[in-house]
Prior knowledge:
Layout: H1 3-7, H2 19-28, H3 31-48, E1 55-59, H4 65-73, E2 78-83, H5 86-103, E3 109-112, E4 115-119, H6 123-132, E5 134-138, E6 151-157, H7 166-175, E7 177-188, H8 194-200, H9 206-218, H10 222-231, E8 238-243, E9 246-252
Parallel strand pairs: 1-2, 1-6, 2-5, 6-7
Antiparallel strand pairs: 3-4, 7-9, 8-9
Helix pairs in contact: 3-4
Amino acid sequence: xxxxxxxxxxxxxxxxxxxxxxxxxxxxxxxxxxxxxxxxxxxxxxxxxxxxxxxxxxxxxxxxxxxxxxxxxxxxxxxxxxxxxxxxxxxxxxxxxxxxxxxxxxxxxxxxxxxxxxxxxxxxxxxxxxxxxxxxxxxxxxxxxxxxxxxxxxxxxxxxxxxxxxxxxxxxxxxxxxxxxxxxxxxxxxxxxxxxxxxxxxxxxxxxxxxxxxxxxxxxxxxxxxxxxxxxxxxxxxxxxxxxxxxxxxxxxxx
Length: 255
């Protein structure tokens, strides 16, 4: 079994079917992972920001679980998942359609911020309305098909290390970020001291510990992140924090 199929690191990003991608989807997009990992992750982000975002971009969305969670907890927000992989986006759209058909009970009227708006003639129209608040598209991080200032929250979870052109991707991400908005980049902390790593993983099974070590090795060192931020002109608008095994980069567009 290819190691990177489990790690989600350097997965194939061509637009054809990939066995690695199919395996990654099967092991990551599960109800248990959503409950234990993705839902708490999104909830934590939303507690870290001081505003309610209207438009969220999940860049490198993979199978689409983070985008779906945002849609669940922020029903009035437009959530967009973007990935370069057609396999990932096709899967995300299939799951989304199944969820909408199963969860969206037909309503003849749509209430927005306490006011009744559109009258919908049938279930198909209602599904289209639900679907309008969440989308998945294929796009490259160096050429995002959006106007300037399009999103007030942009999330990259485990994505940055896999970008082919990290510098120009950062510039493009900042271009589509709205004033007052924020970018959150999450990766594993490669430079964590060995004693701290051992303490945090002492109760884990050896197989999981070895997997975590390989994930950490896929990531970048903090000086590498700092270099990219500086070259993109974002050093003064960003901060890097570590928390146990995790590393978080926060970029603000208010400077």
